[in-house]
Amino acid sequence: MDPATDTDTGTGAAEREGAQAQRVHQLGIDVGSTTVKAVVLDGNRVLYSDYRRHNADVRAELGRLLADIEARHPGLEVVSAITGSGGLTTARAMGIPFVQEVIAGTEATRRLHPEVDVVIELGGEDAKLTYLHPTPEQRMNGTCAGGTGAFIDQMATLLHTDASGLDALAAEHTQLYPIASRCGVFAKSDIQPLINQGAAHEDLAASIFTAVATQTIAGLACGRPIRGNVMFLGGPLHFLPQLREAYKALLPKADSFVTPTGAQLYVAIGAALMAAKTAPPAGQSAQARPMGDEAGAGGVPSAADGGPSPQARPTGDEAGAGRARPRSLADLINALATAEVGAESPRMRPLFASEEERAEFERRHGAEVVPKAEPAEARGRCWLGIDAGSTTIKAVVIDSRGRIVFTHYASNEGDPVAAAVEIVRRVRTGLPEGAVIGRSCATGYGEGLVKAALTMDEGEIETMAHYRAAESVAPGVTSVIDIGGQDMKYLRIRDHAVDSISVNEACSSGCGSFLQTFAQTMGTDVRAFARAAMDSTDPVDLGTRCTVFMNSSVKQAQKEGADVRDISAGLSYSVVRNALYKVIKLKDPSDLGERVVVQGGTFLNDSVLRAFELLTGRQVVRPDIAGLMGAYGAALTARMHDSGQGASSLATVEALEGFSVETTRKTCRLCQNHCQMTISTFSNGERHVSGNRCERGASLERVPKKSELPNLYDWKYKRIFGYRRLTAGKAFRGDMGVPRVLGMYENYPFWFTMLTKLGFRVMISGRSNHALFEEGMESIPSENVCYPAKLVHGHIEALLKKGVTNIFYPCVAFEQGSEGADNCFNCPVVATYPEVIRNNMERLSDPGVRFISPFVNFSNREYLPAHLVGAFKEHGYDIPLEEMRAALDAAWEEDAAVKAEIRQKGRESLEWMRAHGVRGIVLAGRPYHLDPEINHGIPEVIVGLGMAVLTEDSVIDARLERPLRVRDQWTYHSRLYEAAARVGDEPDLEMVQLNSFGCGVDAITADQVQEILEGRGDVHTVLKIDEVSNLGAARIRLRSLEAAVSERCAPAPRATEAEGTAPTARAESEAVAREGTASEVARREGTEAAGREVAAPASSAPLVSAAVDTALHEDPASAAAREEQAGARAGHIEVRASFTKEMREAGYEILAPQMSPIHFRFLSPLLARAGLRVRVLERTSRQSTETGLKYVNNDSCYPAIVVIGQLVEEFVSGRADPDRTAVGITQTGGMCRATNYAALLRKALRDAGYPQVPVIALSVQGLEDNPGFQLGLKDIHKAVQAFVIGDAIQSMLLRVRPYEAVQGSAMELYRRWDRIVREWIEDGRSQEFGGGRARRLTYAGLIRACVREFDALALRDIPRKPRVGLVGEILVKFHPDANNHAVDVIEAEGCEAELPGLMQFFHYSSATAEWDQANLGIGGRQRRVMPLVLWALERYEAPVRRAFAATGGKFEPHRRIGEMIPRSQDIARLGNQAGEGWYLTAEMVDMIEHGCPNIICAQPFACLPNHIVGKGMFRALRNRYPQSNIVAVDYDPGASEVNQLNRIKLMLATAVQGRDGSGDDDGVLDLVGIDFEDAPGAGVGAGAGGTGGRRVVGLGMPGMPPRRAAALR
Questions:
Q1: Under 8 Å between Cβ of 244 and 237
Q2: Is 925 in a helix, a strand, or coil?
Q3: Running DSSP on this structure, what letter comes out for residue 308?
Q4: Rounded Cα–Cα distance for residues 1181 and 1179 (Å)
Q5: CA distance 832 to 830
Q6: According to the model, what pLDDT value does residue 1554 have?
Q7: CA-CA distances (angstroms) from residue 1375 to 1378, 1380, 1404?
Q8: Residue 584 carries which DSSP code?
Q9: Which has the closest alpha carbon to 318: 494, 131, 520, 98?
Q10: What digits encode the pLDDT tens for the residues 418-459?
Q11: pLDDT band for position 152 (cuts 50, 70, 90)
Q12: Neighbours of 1359 (CB within 10 A)
C-alpha cells in the first residue's frame, strides 16, 4: 500500500509509532496463484493493507511488501500467519504457521459478517464455497482450475481484451450462448467458433461469466442448496460486477447478496485473525510452546520401507503447528531472503544435450524447402488456397510452374471474413498482367463462411488439404501430424490413400492457442517464447492430458523459481505428449511409417518439433511452410480440379470495394432443438448460416422439407417415447412420473406398458435442454460425472415442478442377456444413479413425494413380479401378484416388438440406401445418445452431409467372432461390438462411436471397437461429446471420414497419374495438374451425377463393389491377398498366453503390482510356499506412469494407468525377461471397468512388443483359467491368516506412530514384526522372534505377541489427536505412491490416520448373498456359499479381536460387516456393488460413528462407482452427521499435487479446529481505520499506473505483463 493511503497519518502518527513498536500486531499474508496480499491488524484497527501481483516471483514481491511495511512502521513486532494456494512453500521458508485459505476466509467472514450464510470465493485458480449456517461446511475445487480467474483471463485474451474489458462487454449483452461449464478448455472450444461466426463479443462475455457461475455451483454445491445471505469474495468477484450478476441469475432462491468492500483482502484479514489466536498467552515465552513432534508435526517414514517419505513434511512452525511467536518484520524479511525453496516439480531431458545436437537439428530442418517466387514473377494460371483456421488465417498462391508466389499467415483477429477480404484484395492487385487466378479453394474451420463471402470456387475438408500438401512435399508420406491453434490431426496413409484420420475431440488441450495464450500472459509473444525453450537446460515436467492441469503445474513451477525457458520447453513436451497419447495413441514409433510429415503453425515452434523427435525417436520432415500446409493443400486442390478454361469465380477487386456483411441471429423453430443460428448476409448476395444442426435451418424455403435420407436416431427417439398415456379418468392408480433419462432410452417402452397396465397415467418429463440442466445443477454431487447423468437432476426437478409427486426411476443393474456376451451389466452410473438422486435432491423428501427406485435384474424374469409387488407396496401401492404378472407379460411383449421394429427399420434403411447409392453411418453409442441435447444434433449433421444415420441396434446380426480381447460385460457395448463387425464387412457402412466425456467404460470399449474395425480394414471414428454444443469439430471429423472412405474406395491411380499429383509441379506435369488424376476426375463426375440423382452429393462416391467387377481383373497375388484379408477379419481375437504348469516348473518369475505396502510384503513368501517365484513391484515412478499413459487408453482410470505402467515398464527397462516372466493382476468380475484391467494389460504388453508374456488374472469367480497358478487349501489358509495379520499391524502402527515417545520407534517395531511374519509364513517359525533361534509360533500366539509389543511401545502422554480416515478406491487408498503419501501428510499435520482393513473388502464381497437373491433374483450356489465364506473369514479374525480387547481400548478391531450394513442402508443400499460399492459408504458411516468424523475419500479422476457411493453420498452423510468433515480428492497422472495437498489441508485444518473448538466464542469484529473503497485493489498502491481511466484487471494467469498488471498490485 502506498504510504499516502496508510491510515496512520496525521499529527499523532509519530507518537503512535513508538507505542506500536511495544505492542504485538497481527500480520496476515495471502499468497494466491497470481497475487500476494497483506494486512496488519492492531486489535480491531487495520494498520496496513496491500494487494499486489507477484508475477510468479513470490519471494521477491513479498519481500518488497514486507519491506514497505517495515519502512512505514519501523521495529514493528508481529505474530504472523500465511494462507493461500501458494502460501505453503512460503510458510515453510519463513518458519511461520500456514492457515488453509478457506479456513482463513471463513474466519474473516464469521467475525465481520455473522449474518452471512454462504460464501462464494473465486481466486486465480481456486474456487471455494463455504456454508456457515445452519451447519458449517467448506469446499474447494479439485483437480481442475476451470471456471476461475485463470479461465476468465484466457477467455479475455481470446476476445482481445482483459478481464475488466470483458466485464464492460458483458454489461451490454442481449443474449446468452450455452458455453461448456465443466472445463475451461471445453468452454474455449465453444467460444472460438462463435467468435469466427461473428457472434457479438458482448454476448460472448456474458456467456463466459454464466459458464463460470455454472461451474462453481454445479461443481461445489454438490447437492446442498445455496440459500440465505450469500457473500462474494475474491479478486474476480470483487472487480467484475457482471460476474456477480451471473451468479445472482443462477441463484434465484437466495435471500440476498453481499459484496463487501475490500473483498479481495478478506482471506488475508482472516489469516491475521488466525495469527492472533496462535499468539502465546500474556506472560508466556514464545520458546515455552511445544515444538516439533509435540506440536503434532514431523516427517513420517514410509510404511513400506522405513525410509523418508518423498512427501515428508517439515516440523514445528513450518507445518503450521503450535503457537506463533512474535517476530520483527526484519527477521521475517531475512528468513524469506535466506531460506532455500526447493524445486518439487520434476524435470525432463534438455531439448539439446549439446551444441552439436542443436546444429545438426537446425541443418536438417533447413533443407525441406518448397520453391518460391515473388508475386511479380508469377506466370500463367494460378491457384489460390485459403485456410481459415480457428485462430489464424493462411493463404497460398501457386503459379503454373508450381512455385509459391504469395503467402499470408496471421491471426484472424476474431474476424476471418475481414481477414480473407484483405488477402484477396492483395492477391488481385499483386499479380502481374498475364497471371490469372484459375480456381480458388477454401479449407479450415471457417471454410464455409469464407467461401460464401468471397464466392470461391470450392471448399475442401482440411484433413484432405493437409494430406495433399504433405504428399506434394514428401512423396510417399506415411503419416501426417498437424497441430494448429485448436486442432490436432493425425492422418495415417497407406498406398497413397488416407487410411484413417484422428482428430482431437471436444477438448483443444495442448494445441497452439494454449502456447500462444501462455506466451501472452508471460509478457512475450509466441515466437520469443519458443526461442526461449531452445535454450532450456532443465525443462519442467508439466504433465499432460488437460490444459488446465498444465496451467496449475506452470504456476507451481513459477513459484519454485523456474524461468521462462524451462517452462516453455516443458510446455513443448506437454503439447507433443498430448498429441501422442490422446490423438495418435502411438505405441511404437514404427507405426508412423518411414515418411513422417509434421505441419501446422505449432510445429513452426522448433522446441515442439524437437520434443516430437525426442519422444518418438524419429526424424521427421517439417516443410519450411509448415504453418501454411492447409492453404497449400487447398491451392493444390484448386489446381487439381481446374478445367483450364475461364477464370475463377473469386471476388474481384471491384466487388470488394463496397464489401460488407450483415450478421443477424435467430432461433430456428422447425423442430424442438431450437438451434441458435448466426446468419451472415454478404453484400454480394451470398449468405452463410452457422449454428444450425441440419440443412433445414439453412434453407431459404418458407417451410423447408425434411431430408429423405434415413435418420434412425430421429425415428427411434419418436418410437421409444411416442406413447399416449391414459386419461385421468382411466388412470385408477393416479399419475406416475418417469424421467426421460439414461436407461429410459432403452427401457421406456417396457416401463410405460407395465405402468399403464397397472392403471397409472405415465407422466414422462419433457425433452432435454441446457436450461433443464441448469435447473437441476445445484444438486449435482460430482462435477466430473457425464453430462447425461447431470441432466437427470433437471428432469426430476421438472417433474416435481409440474406437480408430479410420484416418480418411478428403478436401478436396473442387469439388462437382458445377449448371446455370446460374458455378462449383461449396465455401467455403474446407468445402473445406480437413482441412488444419487434419492440422496441429493431435497424436494424428494417433501411430504407426499414418493420416489420409487427398486433394484431390478432384467436377466431374470421369474423373480420380477413378486419383487416389484413388494417394491410398490413399500410406497403404499397394494398391487395383486397376478395383476403385476399380467402387466409384466404385456411389457415384455412390447419390449420385444420395439426391438424387432428397430431391426426391421434398419433393414428398410439399408435397402433404401443401396437403391439410391448412398452411404450410411452407424452412429453407435448408448441408448441415451438419442437425446438431441446430448448428441448436439450430430445425426442431423450426418444427414446434411448426404449420409444416412443408423443405430447400432438396427444392424446387429450376431456375426461377430468371439471371444473378444476384453471381457464383454456391458449390454449396451455388446451391441457396439456386434455392429462394428457388420460395418467392417459392408463397404457402404461406416461407424462413428459417440463417447460422453467422463464415460470410463469407453476407455475399454473404444479400443475393442477399433480392433474389430481395423481387423476388417475399416476406419474407427470416435466423437467425444459433452456440454459443448459446437458442431464444427464434429463436422470436420465426419467430412474427413467421408473423404477418407471415398479416397480408399476410388480405383488406385496409375503410376503416371499418381506422378501428376506429386510434389511441386514440373513443366511436363502441368496438363495433368490442370485436369487432376483420372481417379479424381472420375470421382468428381461420379459425385456430381449421384448428387443430381439423390440430392446427397457428398455421400455418393462410387463404391468399388458397385463400380468394378474385380473378378475379371484379379491376378493370383490379389487372390492370395484377399484370402489373407479374410483370415484377418477376426483380428480382434487374440490367443491368450496362459501361465502353464511347465512355466511354473521352469521357475518363471511372476511380477505383482504393489497395492498395500504392509500386506503385499507377505506375498512373496506366501506364494513361494506354493512353488511360485513372485516379485512385488514396491514403488511406482514418474517413468512407469508415463509408460502407462503410453500403452493404456488415456481415458482409463488412474489405477489402471499406474499398475499397467508399472508392469510394462519392467520389460521396457530390461529389468524383466519377457521370455521367462509372467505378470499377475486381479479381476473383480463386477460392473466396474476394473474387471477389464487384465484385457488392458494384455493389450499394453502386445503394443509394447511382449505378447508372449502370460497374464495371470486372479478373480474370486475364476473368470479365467491359469493352469500353472494353482493354490492349495493350505496356501489359501495361510494367505488369509497373513492378510488378517497385515490388517492388525496396519491398524496398530497407525494408532501408535503419532504418539511415539522416541521418534522412529514405531517403524522399528513394525520392521521387526514384518520380518517375524515373513519368516513365520515360510515354515511356522521365526528366528527374529526367538532371538536368533528358530521358534515355532501358532497363529493366535503370533497375534497375541505382536499386539503385546505394540501395546507396550512407549508413547507420549498427550491428548488424542484428531482422527482422519482414508477411504476410497482400493488401490488409491492403500498405495502411498498413488495417493501422494496421504498418510504422511495426515500425520505431519498433527492428526492420526485411520485406514480400513484389506480383509474387509473380502467381507463386503461376501455379505450380500441374501439381499441379492431377494432383490436381484441371484441365488443358486452363491446364496449357499457366500454366507459360509463370510463366517469363515470372521473366524480368522477372532484372535485379533481377543488380543485387541486385552489392550483396554487402545486398539479397536474393525466392526463386523453385519453390524455395518444396517447403519448405512438407508443411505447406500446393498445394490450398489460396483467398485467399493455400498461398503465405501458403510466405511464412512462406521468411521464417523466411532470417533473419526474427518475423512479423505481418495478416488481416481472420473471414477464411475465413486460418482455414486463416494461423492454421491456426501450430502446424506453430512445431513445425518453434522460433525462429519469429508473431502473427495481426485488422483490422476496430470493432477496438481499442490492442489490435492491444499484440499487435504483444508479438511485437516477443519479437523483440528473442530477438536480445539477454536473460533466458536469470538465476538463480532468491527474493523476500523481503512476505507476499503480506496484500497490498493482500486488501483492505488505500489506500482499502480495509469490505464486511461479504466482499471486493467488480470485475474488468474501466471506472470501478467506489467502493462496489464498495474491495477492489481
A1: yes
A2: coil
A3: B
A4: 7
A5: 6
A6: 63
A7: 5, 9, 20
A8: I
A9: 98
A10: 889 989 999 998 899 889 999 999 998 788 888 888 889 999
A11: confident
A12: 6
